[in-house]
Amino acid sequence: MKMSGGVEWAIHCCVLLSQADGPVPAPRLAEFHGISRTYLAKHLQHLSRDGLVSSTEGRVGGYVLTRPAEQITVLDVVLAIEGREPAFRCTEIRQNGPLPASPAACKRACGVARAMHAAEQAWRESLRGVTIADLAAGVLVDAGPDTFVRLREWLSAS
Amino acid sequence: MKMSGGVEWAIHCCVLLSQADGPVPAPRLAEFHGISRTYLAKHLQHLSRDGLVSSTEGRVGGYVLTRPAEQITVLDVVLAIEGREPAFRCTEIRQNGPLPASPAACKRACGVARAMHAAEQAWRESLRGVTIADLAAGVLVDAGPDTFVRLREWLSAS
DNA sequence: GTCCGTTTACTCGGATATGCGTTGTCCGAGTTGCGCTGG
DNA sequence: CCAGCGCAACTCGGACAACGCATATCCGAGTAAACGGAC
């Protein structure tokens, strides 16, 4: 069970976008994080499809958050990148074999699937409790109060 | 983020083993669930490596749970199959690019990694709260009280 | 009848191919700012 | 000096290969029961 590495990229990009004044193009985002330009663009497309970011074309185009950072949760980003399919998918093997479960018993989901579903729900709830704004505030605490000032300077300089 | 399908198989096998009287060989387990013999054997090897099941060779060999079903959690099985590596692994991209985070700021884990880690911890705690015995009890409720009786009959018959 | 050796069938374990998904890259369509030209 | 037009550069979006891992399989090593024969 491995999460896509693009999730980390997307979250960091959202934190950056929350502190930018205007649109930020994908190559700029990639350069700032030292990652692949083209591959990051692919992930940003997923964010755009889910309506988390808005893309503007043209000479001074780029990506902008569609909502305030306080209203974007980490779960939103994860679902946009990884998709909404649950990690565990029940194949109903209890209906196979010489002693298959009766159709009446299968009206309720099997216990294994219920346990997995509950765990995934807990995971989602935890991620839903953290917003991009929270992460941005954490960066300020860890890296110093002038971090985003220098970020904006770099954005306007290049 | 997709979980291995072998996890479902392994959990169902553990539930079955918790109700068996003696060792159950892998081909029997596979036949009962209508799944691949050889591939299931591979997953059972993982359970054996982690000490969840004990294997006995020879003519009447097979797999037996090493602990009572009340002391085996779903998390144990998931970790045995999927491995103990966390789904999210931080690549520390905050240290890249033109404005890298200072080494002092990196003494603490980055906020993204902390959020992911907390979510995964919640997921683990949820899975840790369900035991193989709980699942077996759920099967009794869903499929009827005589389910395991018929299971034992089938095991001794074939 | 009992004990022992051999056979035999059955088990697990690791080493070995294959298909699909994530990773990574590229090029084309579209849009906007900028510069030039004409009035 | 100002307005209109063409250009060019920059942007995003989807289509195109390559690697890695999960999937699926096979065969060999080992073991314990069962059988046959000798005592």
UniProtKB/TrEMBL annotation, chains A, B:
<dbReference type="GO" id="GO:0005829">
    <property type="term" value="C:cytosol"/>
</dbReference>
<dbReference type="InterPro" id="IPR030489">
    <property type="entry name" value="TR_Rrf2-type_CS"/>
</dbReference>
<dbReference type="InterPro" id="IPR000944">
    <property type="entry name" value="Tscrpt_reg_Rrf2"/>
</dbReference>
<dbReference type="GO" id="GO:0003700">
    <property type="term" value="F:DNA-binding transcription factor activity"/>
</dbReference>
<dbReference type="InterPro" id="IPR036388">
    <property type="entry name" value="WH-like_DNA-bd_sf"/>
</dbReference>
<dbReference type="InterPro" id="IPR036390">
    <property type="entry name" value="WH_DNA-bd_sf"/>
</dbReference>
<dbReference type="Pfam" id="PF02082">
    <property type="entry name" value="Rrf2"/>
</dbReference>
<protein>
    <submittedName>
        <fullName>Rrf2 family protein</fullName>
    </submittedName>
</protein>
